[in-house]
Amino acid sequence: MRFIACGASVIGPRHLDLGEPNQDAMALTGCRDGWIAAVADGLGSRARSDLGARRACQVARRILRAAPMGLDLPATLPLFHQLWIEAIGLARPRDAATTLLFARVTAEGDLQAAQLGDGLLLVRCDGEFRRVTPERTAYGNQTWALESTHLQDKWSTTQDKLAEPGDGVVLMTDGVADDLEPAQLAEFFDALYQDLSTRNRRRGRRWLQSELNDWATPLHSDDKTLVAIFRISK
């Protein structure tokens, strides 16, 4: 079984103009012939949100690399929060608040993924496309995030299998997600697979980075991060 995995994170025009850091972060790493991915989006109004986003991705990578097969993902979510609190050090959780999406794909194609807060978590398993992210119900820019208190009921989780070529998982922050038409998410997912499956990882990352830098939505301003893992062979 073979996979293609690519990811990119680019700073948005607003933060570039202000001389501020990218408040998105990402992690993508191989693990036992499978893959681990995470993306995070620090809340824009918080002073240390770039730190919180980076630490969230690092914690997700550390936990998932050490996790056994058959991980009970919902039961492990409090550990993500606990280790994130430790990882941000002296920063206050409120100042470092961040969303977090992550996924693990094993060498056998088993998928586990979770999301807290904004962004999109999309999967195709056994040929069927599905949006894991619930429809947004909060007002305006309100979102759930890693902060002082663990919010078990605000997490969305999924567990499935990448059984066919073209199956995969895509994680993105709201700088990308908010510009996509909900009715066209399956087409967007397929287009990503078609483009990335023809490139190796390095060329795929460059292509994705170029697409995010040249984002077609007029007057877009936010940071943008996207990570995709696709199965490309039986």
Automatic annotation (TrEMBL):
SUPFAM superfamilies: PP2C-like. Pfam families: PP2C_2 (PF13672). Gene3D superfamilies: PPM-type phosphatase domain (3.60.40.10). Residues 11-210 form the PPM-type phosphatase domain. It comes from the Bacteria. This is PP2C family serine/threonine-protein phosphatase. The lineage of its organism: Bacteria, Pseudomonadati, Pseudomonadota, Gammaproteobacteria, Methylococcales.
